[in-house]
Amino acid sequence: DATTSSTSSPSPSSTTTTAASQFGSSMGVAEVPAADIAELGPGPAPGETWTIPFAISVCGRFIEPLVGSGGPITANADGTVSVTGVDDGTPTLGTLAEGTGLTLAPGSMTLPATALPAELDSTDPPTQVAGATLVDGGSCGATSGAVEVWVYSADATDSGDGIMVVTDDPGAVPFAEEGMSIVVAYAAESSLPTLPPSALGRG
Predict the structure, then answer these.
(1) Is 112 within 8 Å of 97 (Cβ atoms)?
(2) Are 200 and 181 within 8 A, CB to CB?
(3) CA–CA separation, 77 vs 68, rounded Å?
(4) If you ran DSSP here, which 8-state letter would residue 92 be given?
(5) What does residue 9 show for φ and ψ, rounded to 5 degrees?
(6) Global pTM?
(7) What CA–CA distance (Å, rounded) separates 2 from 14?
(8) Which is deepest, 105, 129, 143, 176, by most CB within 10 Å?
(9) Closest CA to 108 of 174, 179, 169
């Protein structure tokens, strides 16, 4: 079992993963239920495909993009997901998880055994990533960690304002709006949402 244990704060060196710091914002961040994300839009029309920036952040570090395909969603090596509209509802993070080996549930996520890096050496002791189960109330550095989804609407992707944080049911978050960006995070209590690297420079 690879449930997280206490770690120290990440340092900016000694890891190939990207520090989750750029575009961190405290402006207009609101905690909302997953159901509220559907208010952004109905998702792609059947047969229409959107490219959505997506990333996973663990204790302040973006891990390497997961790659895989499940139904109408393909996770790409460039840190985006291709989402194709279907007739029977809007694709969700749960749909994406099924295709990448990620497991999402209220208050927890389990990363696939193939996740890279296998551990983060930016923490002391190193933090297990591959196959790790991350749960609310575990440790992220010196503070408590929690599973969150950082949802940037199309406007928030451009401005950094109006970011929504979902904590109730990560798998229920829909891909509702073209131009949105999403991060699934295991975040320290004091963390600020940050854009996925694939969203930088878009627009």
Answers:
(1) no
(2) no
(3) 9
(4) B
(5) -65, 145
(6) 0.86
(7) 22
(8) 129
(9) 169
Which pair of structure tokens corresponds to residue 159? Answer: 């401005």
Strands 139-140, 133-135: pairing kind: unpaired
Distance CA(140)–CA(5), nearest Å, equals 8
8 Å CB contact between 145 and 187: yes
Alpha-carbon distance values, 178 to 40, 49, 96 (Å): 9, 9, 16
**3-state SS class at 102:** coil
CA geometry: angle at 58 spanning 137 and 56, to 5°? 120
Question: Token pair 């973006």 is at which residue?
Answer: 62
Output the pLDDT for position 202: 59
DSSP code string of 165-194: EE-S-GGG-B--STT-EEEEEEEETTPPP-
pLDDT digits (tens, 9 = 90+) for 62-93: 999 999 998 899 999 999 999 999 999 999 99
In the chain, the amino acid numbered 131 is G
CA distances from 44 to 36, 67, 198 (A): 17, 21, 20
Q: Residue 138 carries which side chain, given as an amino acid letter?
A: G
